[in-house]
Structure prediction request, 324 residues.
Amino acid sequence: MHTEPITLDDIRAASARVSRIARLTELLDVSPHAGRTLLLKCESQQPGGAFKIRGAYNMVAQLSPDERRRGVITYSSGNHGQAMALAARELGAPAVVVMPTTAPKVKIAGVKGFGAEVIFAGTTSTDRRLRAEAEAAARGLTMVPPFDHPWIVAGQGTAGLEILEQRPDVATVLVPIGGGGLAAGVAAAVKLSRADVKVVGVEPAGAAKMKSSLEAGHPVTLDRTDSIADGLLPVRPGDLTFALVHQYVDSVVTVEDSQIIDAVLWLESSVGIVVEPSGAASVAAALAGAGMPGPTVAIISGGNIDPERLEEFRQEARTRSAGR
Prediction:
């Protein structure tokens, strides 16, 4: 368990470190399409197709030469696995990724494409974590956790610093919450720089582990999670990420899967970008009115979606519209 606070200096140091590989992603103005001042922080443009390269590279880069030589392991529904595999390849470390049996094909292909070994274990984040911990112990590998580590959180927070530089008049930042690494890092970066900017976390209604934890006053483990947003399905937030979200995030809202599907399709048809469900959750919240008034930035956390899944969403939307 990591409960060290994250400082602005930690995030600035991470920014210098990850600039070797992470892109300064576009802040895309979609206000004319949204009918309000809305900008998208397009982390889907990152190597690996998601924000995760920020945290993964920040951590692997700080490991000792011996730790890198022995190798790294993580557990991931896909995007963090791809990011760690890429970071490990760039830094000369063998990598193992434990993925769910239900992982999207595009994410499995990405992990393998970056040269990592893939192990499949169950369908929940707990299944993956237990298998990864066992492999790490047996093989002497260093764990690079998906979200609950200060180096991971500081890396993700670099996106928050960029938003403030790219759009100094931002009023609200909407950020999706899986395990909470992105929300914790971005909220720390934003609030430690500009306390007046609001940070709103967004979760699927079927996986509201952070909202439930905040209401309980401590991290809680949900019996199950269920949503099309496969990257936002951990059953429990991290201890560190919960503490930071509790401290710095103004509120956490939930969106329904139907709203996420509509956001994915709106982004494709109106804006011309392909976004995975987890990445569209923040936009779903924006389209529902979260973040008003003032300039709002919604973080598109990732863009890795199977084409067949996108076609399923189009079909579902047509069916819903025909039933109205």
Notes: The chain has a mean pLDDT of 95. The domain at 8-50+149-322 is CATH 3.40.50.1100 (Rossmann fold).
